[in-house]
Amino acid sequence: MNIAILSGKGGTGKTTVSTNLAMTLGVSYVDCDVEEPNGFIFLNPSILKSEDVFVEFPVIDNKKCVLCGACAKVCQFNSLAKAGKEIVVFQKLCHDCGACKLVCKTGALSYSKRSIGKLETGISKDIICHRGILNVGEPMAVPVIRNLLGGLSKEDHFIDCPPGTSCNVVTSLKYADAAILVTEPSEFGLHDLKMAVELVKIYNIPYGIIINKDDGTENMVKRYCTENKISLLGTIPYSMEAAALYSKGIMLCDDEFHREIFINTAEKIKEAFAW
């Protein structure tokens, strides 16, 4: 089973929850937050394999090009533009859809490849860890995420999704069998949680909520879960001790108090998802 862990906003503790649950349950961890993949900071795996991720982009043969501009007109992403006596290619805007080549009647278009990031696989305390890393300056993370998730084995995985509800999260959810939404008891947290819930509903997969930095009261997020009949899978108390451990890169599940919290949460996850 692939369980996606996501949040409507950044900073809720999504990576904290996903890395500690993966370690508690002995399940493979996959970091899809390829623009800032910091799960490995805590898991600190030994890297076993690394490979580049390539995308294609159009190359113009000026000897064959008659400057008809058909390629620029058909491109929905503005990666081609007719400028005077040449067709200008903006490589980083290309989505590799192939439309430009289809409309080129003179065969002036071909494709070349360039690296936009890499995939890494490692091992930490007997659990397999995967992550994608988008190169600095690259605008599109989806190809890296797609390559990362498309190459996974049929084992169980915790998928640490990118923050928010963008196309990067949508791509990650396509590979998920269930979802855990991590939030915090604040107005911003609840607002963005509601958007994440609506996104997960589209995929018709089971889901539940974990509250991080919980204040111990019957707060707005707990009321929202009750009113909408959403499973509350666990809460992680707000504490200076947790912040101190986190700042040192120490896994919370290595701490006796927090270990019990993640063990209990893991049991609720198994029950909720019939896993």
Descriptive account of the structure:
33% of the residues lie in helices and 29% in strands. It is of the alpha/beta class and 275 residues long. It has two domains: 2-53 and 117-272, Rossmann fold (3-Layer(aba) Sandwich), CATH 3.40.50; 55-114, Alpha-Beta Plaits, CATH 3.30.70.20. The N and C termini lie close together (8 Å). The model has no long low-confidence stretch (mean pLDDT 94).
Describe this structure in a few short sentences.
The chain is an alpha/beta fold and 275 residues long.
Per the CATH scheme, the topology name of the largest domain is Rossmann fold
What is the name of the CATH class of the largest domain? Alpha Beta
Strand proportion, as a percent range, falls in 25-35%
Q: Based on the structure given, which CATH architecture of the largest domain is correct?
A: 3-Layer(aba) Sandwich
The description of the largest β-sheet is: 9 strands, mixed
> How many angstroms separate the termini?
8 Å
Helix content: 25-40%
Element pattern in H and E: EHEHEHEEHEEHEHEHEHEHH
What overall form do the CA principal axes indicate? elongated
Give the strand order, joined by hyphens, for the main sheet. 3-6-7-2-8-1-9-10-11
Number of strands: 11
Nearest-integer average pLDDT: 94
Please work out how many helical segments DSSP would assign: 10
Number of domains: 2
